[in-house]
Amino acid sequence: MDRVDINTIRSSIERLNALPTIPNILKKLLKLLENPSTSLNDIGHFISHDPIITTKVLRMINSPIYGFPGRIYSVNQAVILLGLNVVKGLLLSVSVFDLMKKVMVGLWEHSLACAITSRLMAKKKGLKEPEESSIAGLLHDIGKVALLLQFQEYYDSVMNLAEKKGVVIMEAEKEIFGIDHAKAGEWMAEKWSFPKNLIEIIGYHHRPNLSKIFIVETSIVHLADILVRARGFGFAGDNSIPNINDNAWTILGFSGNDIKDILKELEESMDAANELFIE
Amino acid sequence: MEKVIIVSKDEHIKKQIEKTIEKEFEYEYLDDINHIFNFFYDVIPDGVIIDIQNQDYSLFNIVNQIKSDPIFGSISFIAVMDNNQPFPETNRIFIDDYIKIKDIETDLCFRLKLSLHKSRRITEVNPLTRLPGNISIDREIQDRLLKKQEFAIAYSDIDNFKPFNDKYGFGRGDEVIKATGRLILNIVKIREPNKSFVGHIGGDDFVFIMNPGLIADASQAIIHAFDEIIPTFYDIEDREKGVIESIDRQGNKRLFSFMTLSIGITHNKHTQFSHYGEIKEIASRMKSYAKRFKGSCFKVDERRNQQK
């Protein structure tokens, strides 16, 4: 299969308008919305467990229409500023692609586990806004969704290649697309006026040492991604575990016990999340 | 050129509409109204021509959702109806005008223009928040007084807004005002969807009117949301310090803490007011009282038999 031209990839990703999500989650969310005693915080809490709906909500609140581009990071805040009607409208515009379900289920679980782990690490590091790390963990692989949606056949061969050669998915992506999902995600986040720190974390989560301003936050998501893969939650497109970046490991300075604590809490949270989201 | 979205599945109608408006408007098609929010990311259209033949409650519902949000409320919706279709009740679907299929060719273009002009002319709204302004606020209060309705009215004001505006500039100040308007509106509307009212007096002053039993709880939630969201409008270095250096009214440099929200509330449970000015005056005094307290807070006037 020929390589795709890099400009074609970029413009296809920037043209993406609707992202698919998992129908089960949508059904539950609509049920929640119908209940008059549901508060905006309940809705925000629920949405922040799904990368696709989170992306939509953040994209909308950071769009020029609302006039605070690049500022709102938290789903709860976005929901309060958008209001119930707009959130409902956004949910209705979520399209469901059957072809995505299989891959997405694994990716969704992987993303959710990364969100939880990133939040736990941010708390341990004493960061002021652990919620921000949680969102970054949730959305770090959004570039995979974009590539999958726009170039499904090519992405299939990416996954085959990764399996055949036993390399991590980003190496295979680079071979076929010339870029990896981190770059794809960065383009998408830029196009959608996401906050700067989010763009940087998505773009550099595999190379945290290159991150310019938010190096601690980027290192957190980098390490969370690897821990979650190693622990075996979800599926991120391949079965390999990438190496931990030395620099990121030093910056975070976690001890063996810290990591044990984090993994233990992650498992408990995932059990609770599974009850909520997976039938 | 003004932009219009045409929502229809009927190819014949789409062709007809296209023929009559193609020279005067920019337009795009949409098959499924559920996807309309995907348009709103980049531009808000000026008008929507929507085919309501054989349509049901769910379409009405989404039109109403859009029209009841102030940001999208000025979009004109024109319904395309079957020649023999009965008119829907006006309170079931918030459309601005209608057209029968037989009249599309002769009338649609002119109707659309009229409708767009009208929506620009009549909305007395604050251009920044698109919330109703003073004339509408006064009318709303006077209506309720005339109907002898029991209601509570809250005045809110942002503390330390001026130093923020001086330091970061008007653009950032406007963002804060927009965010404040949005959060007040959304928190009030989720607690009392139909009978509440939110208006923008001007500058950083807002008004909301609610059922007296609901207003304290809503004010608490508003303050909480304000305190959560406002720090994101400061630069990262300032967020770490928790204060900003700016200039006070005397022109001296000094440190200011972050913006907070003061809300003053009064109601007509114990006092009869006959003029909107009287109850506004007391709400405004309560707001000044709330401003004396440090941090965000709300204060409810519980005195009986007011001195007017």
Describe the structure.
- The complex is a heterodimer of chains A (279) and B (308).
- Chain A has 279 residues and is mainly α.
- Chain A has helices spanning 6-15, 23-34, 40-47, 51-61, 75-82, 84-92, 98-124, 130-139, 142-150, 152-165, 169-177, 181-191, 196-204, 215-231, 246-252, 256-277.
- In chain A, helix 7 (98-124) packs across helix 16 (256-277).
- Residues 95-102 of chain A have low confidence and may be disordered.
- Chain B contains nine helices and twelve strands.
- In chain B, the strands form three sheets. In chain B, strands 2-1-3-4-5 form a five-stranded parallel β-sheet, covered by helices on one side. Chain B has a five-stranded mixed β-sheet with strand order 7-8-6-11-12, with helices on both faces. A two-stranded antiparallel ribbon of chain B has the order 9-10.
- In chain B, helix 1 (11-21) packs across helix 3, helix 5 packs across helix 6 and helix 6 runs antiparallel to helix 7.
- The radius of gyration of chain B is 23 Å and the shape is globular.
- The model of chain B has no long low-confidence stretch (mean pLDDT 90).
Mind sketching the topology for me?
The complex is a heterodimer of chains A (about 280) and B (about 300).
Chain A: H1 6-15, H2 23-34, H3 40-47, H4 51-61, H5 75-82, H6 84-92, H7 98-124, H8 130-139, H9 142-150, H10 152-165, H11 169-177, H12 181-191, H13 196-204, H14 215-231, H15 246-252, H16 256-277
Helix pairs in contact in A: 1-12, 3-5, 4-5, 7-8, 7-14, 7-16, 9-10, 9-12, 10-11, 12-13, 13-14, 14-15
Chain B: E1 3-7, H1 11-21, E2 26-30, E3 47-51, H2 57-67, E4 76-81, E5 97-100, H3 104-122, H4 134-146, E6 152-159, H5 161-168, H6 170-191, E7 197-202, E8 205-210, H7 215-229, H8 236-241, E9 243-247, E10 253-257, E11 260-267, H9 276-291, E12 297-300
Parallel strand pairs in B: 1-2, 1-3, 3-4, 4-5, 11-12
Antiparallel strand pairs in B: 6-8, 6-11, 7-8, 9-10
